[in-house]
Amino acid sequence: MPKADQARFADVFDGIEKFGLSCPRVQFRQLRGKLWEVKFNSPSGGYRIAYVVVESETMVWLHAFKKKTQKTPASDLEIAEKRMKEVLGL
Question: Which range of residues forms the domain containing residue 25?
Answer without folding.
Answer: 3-88
